[in-house]
Write a structure and sequence with these properties.
The complex is a heterodimer.
Chain A lengths: L10 E5 L5 H6 L6 E4 L5 E3 L8 E3 L1 H10 L5 E4 L13 H14 L4 E4 L2 E6 L2 E9 L5 H17 L4 E4 L14 H12 L2 E5 H11 L3 H7 L5 E6 L3 E3 L2 E3 L8 H10 L8 E4 L6 H23 L6 H4 L1
Parallel strand pairs in A: 1-2, 1-14, 2-5, 5-6, 6-9, 9-10, 10-11, 11-14
Antiparallel strand pairs in A: 3-4, 7-8, 12-13
Helix pairs in contact in A: 4-5
Chain B lengths: L1 H14 L1 H10 L10 H11 L2 H21 L1 H7 L1 H14 L7 H17 L7 H14 L12 E7 L1 H9 L9 E10 L5 E6 L1
Antiparallel strand pairs in B: 1-2, 2-3
Classes of the chains: A alpha/beta, B mainly alpha.
Chain lengths: 305, 198
């Protein structure tokens, strides 16, 4: 792995949600960095509109203060890097502008497409749709990742996706595809262990088989989360605490990722009522305990600046 | 180009169950002429895959949550069954265009207002939809120098009585007639404030 893709050892992160803000502000000793969906800090009026990204003043004020106390990393949902009908350079420019402001140590997005077209108009499915693990997808993604990396001088990570159906006759299995994507484009991975668990549970696959094949040197961040069972499927709903199998995966994979920068807990804010502050604190404490057993102690904000 | 057609078709299968059923039962003829044989095979397989049902559930849940969160009074007043009917009709005529909640909710209000003009009869719905739409209009994202004009909503029934019953999760009954206008503005902290002009 080249030096431009190395990241500081931040430790344990929490995904920002408005409903978690009181906890985030009061209990900041329980986590080491804040992960942020930048798309909720602005409103995207639509491709080609000027101005396109209207920033949320209240959110920006919070971030302006909070970034002085803790590292912030971005995890975007709006790039739709896999969309065949459009390469969204306007989104890259927005991320680049935020890099100039926040100097985040890395940033990430989803390996999927959400935007497509219908009758010459844009359509946003609202679901991270899977790309076929084919050579053709690599050819689509590689120059896009390279352009993102050229414009934003921080490692760019893509997250393994959840999928409820599999395309037949793919050129690669998922792990081989991710390995190829990293090698060719220079992107790194956000390994979402709950996505992996969800896929394996729904498709009766072995997550450890996937992890054995994946080049774990490329993993710079991991996600853990909870989900729900409905209609015969298990969903990555970010609903509450992580299931035991995800903790086992984390315990197994943590010592095998030499370049890992952080592990982030994701939970929708609406679940705070059920989980409670103590429950959330317990999730973070368990992550921290595992991190300290398998990874170097998190670096201070000054050291990561 | 065929990747583009492939994605457009698979996404439409998610948002339009009738389209998916057509693909499953009648095939892909006329949908796109540039698909490779493998893409055609995959689309036909996906159209019949149970996983597409799960993907549809996520789509529905996310899109419906926008209306549930943004329009609580309209939702309550419509009731579960009628809301489901109206949402279904709204979705069949309006593709999802944005990740954001506010625009979807305003578009649904516009749809309901049109339905009320063309014969939908739900007592107090005109007032409540107009009120929630105006509230959202005041909360629209805007540039720092941009100002949002006050929003006015005409009521034919006493708004205090109506809102009191709704806030108690009661279906409103016997709300006294009262012609008045509500004027909504944003205060310095960007909270919506309403005044009643009688």
């Amino acid at each position: 792995m080249n030096s431009s893709s190395s990241v500081p050892k931040l430790g344990i992160g929490l995904l920002y949600q408005e409903e978690l803000r009181p906890f985030i502000e009061r209990e900041r000793q329980r986590f080491d960095f804040l992960e942020l969906l930048p798309d909720i800090m602005w409103t995207d009026i639509g491709y080609g509109r000027n101005p396109r990204f209207i920033e949320n003043r209240v959110g920006i004020d919070f971030l302006r203060q909070f970034r002085m106390e803790m590292p912030v990393v971005l995890h975007s949902i709006g790039f739709s890097i896999g969309s065949a009908h459009r390469f969204d350079r306007e989104h890259i420019a927005q991320i680049a502008a935020w890099y100039d402001w926040l100097k985040f140590p890395w940033h990430s997005d989803h390996l999927a497409f959400m935007f497509t077209e219908h009758a010459a108009a844009d359509m946003n499915v609202g679901v991270t749709m899977p790309l076929p693990y084919d050579e053709e997808s690599l050819e689509l993604l590689t120059p896009r990742v390279q352009e993102m990396r050229a414009r934003v001088p921080a490692p760019f990570l893509l997250e393994n996706n959840v999928y409820f159906f599999k395309y037949s006759q793919q050129d690669f299995d998922e792990a081989a595809f991710l390995n190829q994507l990293c090698e060719r484009s220079g992107c790194r991975l956000l390994l979402d262990l709950h996505n992996l668990y969800t896929n394996c549970r729904n498709h009766d696959d072995d997550p450890y088989d996937f992890l054995e094949k994946l080049n774990l040197e490329n993993v710079l961040e991991m996600h853990v989360a909870g989900g729900v069972e409905a209609d015969g499927f298990y969903f990555d709903a970010h609903s509450g605490v992580s299931p035991p199998e995800v903790w086992e995966l984390l315990d197994w994979v943590l010592p095998r990722c030499p370049n890992l920068g952080g592990v982030t807990f994701e939970m929708l804010g609406s679940w705070m009522v059920d989980v409670g502050e103590e429950g959330l604190a317990a999730q973070l404490a368990r992550m921290k305990e595992m991190w300290m057993r398998h990874q170097p102690a998190p670096q201070s904000l000054e050291a990561t600046a | 180009m065929s990747q583009r057609s492939f994605q457009a078709i698979i996404a439409r299968m998610v948002v339009d169950p009738a389209f998916r059923a057509h693909a499953r039962e009648q095939g892909l003829a006329g949908m796109a002429d540039d698909l490779t044989p493998l893409e055609q095979q995959r689309l036909l397989e996906v159209a019949s895959d149970r996983g597409m049902h799960a993907t549809r559930l996520i789509y529905e849940d996310f899109r419906l949550s926008k209306l549930y969160i943004m329009l609580p009074l309209t939702r309550f007043l419509l009731g579960r069954k009628r809301l489901a009917r109206e949402v279904s009709a709204f979705w069949s005529a309006n593709l999802p265009v944005s990740y954001y909640f506010l625009q979807e909710a305003i578009d649904f209000c516009n749809y309901l207002q049109e339905r009320l003009r063309s014969g939908l009869r739900v007592k107090y719905l005109y007032e409540i939809v107009s009120y929630e739409r105006a509230t959202l209009e005041l909360q629209r994202p805007r540039l720092p120098a941009e100002t949002i004009p006050p929003q006015t909503v005409n009521f034919s029934y006493d708004p205090i009585s109506l809102f009191t019953q709704l806030s108690r999760q009661q279906r409103p009954r016997a709300v006294p007639p009262l012609r008045c206008t509500l004027v909504g503005t944003l205060d310095e902290d960007e909270n919506v404030q309403w005044d009643i002009l009688k």
